[in-house]
Amino acid sequence: MNRRRCAAAATTLVCALAVLASPDLLNRAYAAPVPPPAASPSASPSAVAPPPVELPPGTTASDIANAGAGSGSGADSADSARSLEKVRLEIARLYRKAASATDAYNLADEQVKQQASEVADLAGDIVRGQQRIEALKAQAGAAARAQYRGAGLPPEARLLLAGDPQLFLDGVGRIKQGQKATSDLLVELTREQEDLKTYAADSHTHWDRLKKTRDRKEKAEKEIKKQISAAKKLEKSLAKKDRERLAALDRAEAARAQTAWLGSESTFRARGIGLGATAQGAKAVEFATAQIGKPYVWGGAGPSSYDCSGLTSQAWLAAGRPIPRTSQEQWRQLPKVAVADMRPGDLIIYFADASHVAMYVGDGRMVHAPRPGRDITLAGAGSMRILGVVRPDA
């Protein structure tokens, strides 16, 4: 009996040890959570980015950070890191939308100024036309009064009644001159009246265009404020330590992208990272770098604050070369050059919608006004996805 009990106990112990020694169970109990795959340092920054993380309306950073937390401390850390990355991508998405709206606002603002000037010019033309018509009418009235003073007789009849042949001949010449002057007066009066009608019609058309452009400008302004407010709200909902971690994530991502960009542009690196600046380009760089430390303000074009395209357009204006006001128009209108050939003063256009622009300053760096809440600064030229490069003084 004792021998059978000992054998049963031994069998139970062996089975228990076998279960505890199971690799799958040991892995579940002791293995550290597998970190998310790191981005390859050789990945090209021009590769297609993952789709933006769309969050439900009203979502805060705390909601994201508290979602999907695991039961172990390692799982908590990994989930927290992934949640913070979602917050970072969402904030970047909101500021990108604000940047696109800022470009629309700036374009509408430029058009409002131009169209308002055109309306003012047409109003001046209408006033001058009315004054000219009044003057012509006065001349016509003077001619009519002169005829009345001649007892209503036409000039030809008065000449026939004259007894002096020489006086008659001289009068014929004056009659022809007077008839031509009267004819010219009537033609000019008719032309001025037609011009006045055209001015009035053009003024109405231009005024309608101006009103529509102002509406677009107001709509863009509301969109800017909406996106910036949402981004700031999301940032403020983070704890202080998480905001610090978020800033560190931004810096790390920018450094990774810059390293990958420098590594992918072999031709660019082989040529000593760009060409030398022209005289105008050097002036533009000097102006832009002198603004470092000033705040980003959407719609800003100096002297105390700038947005991204406000900085680049004012820098080139200071260099004597006016360029379009917005990053999208700079990309559309200015001559394009290869990234490998860019030189200081060239403008680097970022993102597929050309919603951001910076100025290349040499040595693989650029100066730019990043986004609301940040100041003008130097950064790696490849720290964001490059769409292309344009050259104002090509």
From TrEMBL:
Signal sequence region: 1-21
Species the sequence originates in: Streptomyces paludis
Coiled coil: 210-244
Name of the protein in its database record: NlpC/P60 family protein
InterPro entries linked: NLP_P60_dom, Papain-like_cys_pep_sf, PG_Endopeptidase_C40
PROSITE patterns: NLPC_P60 (PS51935)
Keyword Hydrolase: yes
Occurrences of domain NlpC/P60 (ranges): 278-394
